UniProtKB/TrEMBL annotation:
Alphabetized SUPFAM superfamilies for the sequence: NAD(P)-binding Rossmann-fold domains
UniProt-recorded name of the protein: SDR family oxidoreductase
Classification via InterPro entries: NAD(P)-bd_dom_sf, Sc_DH/Rdtase_CS, SDR_fam
Domain of life (superkingdom): Bacteria
């Protein structure tokens, strides 16, 4: 088992990628503390994973007390903390015209500031076991789409945080900090979001080649499996790194001539 006897804190862990990571960690021998916003989902996940292997704490990670409470939950339940997965995210569309101050403050609070504060709260415990942090970013961190302006900015900030702390914390505390940038993932929320945007119910069965050369997008489970390396001791001394999980190159991609119309809603 690759994570035997490790304790992993996962924000945004009740659904989607976070839930898949939690399940994967338990399968590999870890104990997990999962966080989310819907109490029923938290209860259901702990029931599925087993109370001996998991605990949950329902709260908004932007609350001032959240970082300390999350860490306290892990220590009180399992006696240690080996890894933090900053997975919780606020995803919403905005562009140069529609992005307003309260909106972008909320975006940055969830996606950039809260992860920093959680790492800060967890650092003493991570340092004592030479633990690690894995930040879940997005390929949009490299620039993003016009209608994902604020979200892309927040993930770009998270990526810089990873690079910065991945160097300083590993040198000073022995704590590795890395990040994965997933591409388009078929989560429960993504299915609902696209339906609300006017796309057909089974939109994910007909993805244009420009977005999915494989004729499909990623599953949460595929992202979770990739996380195991970064959370395990197999990662060795690797720190301050960002890995893109996408089907095509993000930088320098050769777009087909008809790409402009390939993303239109159906």
């Amino acid at each position: 088992m690759r994570l035997k006897d490790k304790v992993v804190l996962i924000t945004g862990g009740y659904t989607g990628i976070g839930k898949a990571i939690a399940k994967c960690c338990v399968q590999e021998g870890a104990k997990v503390v999962v966080n989310g916003l819907d109490e029923e989902f938290g209860l259901a996940l702990v029931k599925e994973l087993g109370a001996d292997n998991s605990a949950y704490i329902t709260m908004d990670i932007t609350e001032e007390s959240a970082p300390q409470l999350l860490v306290k939950k892990a220590i009180s339940k399992f006696g240690q903390l080996n890894a933090v997965v900053n997975n919780a995210a606020y995803i919403a569309s905005s562009n140069i015209v529609s992005t307003e101050v309260p909106f972008i403050k909320r975006m940055l609070a969830v996606n950039s500031i809260a992860p920093l504060m959680i790492i800060q709260a967890a650092l003493p415990h991570l340092s004592s076991v030479r633990g690690c942090v894995l930040n879940i970013g997005s390929i949009n961190a490299w620039g993003g789409e016009p209608d994902l302006l604020a979200y892309s900015m927040s993930k770009g900030a998270l990526m810089t945080l990873t690079r910065n702390l991945g160097d300083s914390l590993f040198r000073e505390n022995g704590v590795r900090v890395n990040q994965i940038n997933p591409g388009w993932v078929l989560t429960e929320k993504e299915i609902l979001n696209k339906k609300e945007q006017g796309m057909k119910a089974d939109w994910y069965k007909d993805i244009p080649d420009i977005f999915a050369p494989a004729q499909r997008i990623f599953t949460p489970e595929e992202i979770a499996v990739a996380c195991l390396y970064w959370l395990s001791d197999e990662c060795g001394p690797v720190s301050s790194q960002v890995m893109d999980l996408e089907q095509f190159p993000i930088i320098g991609r050769n777009l087909p001539k008809n790409w402009e119309g390939s993303h239109k809603k159906k």
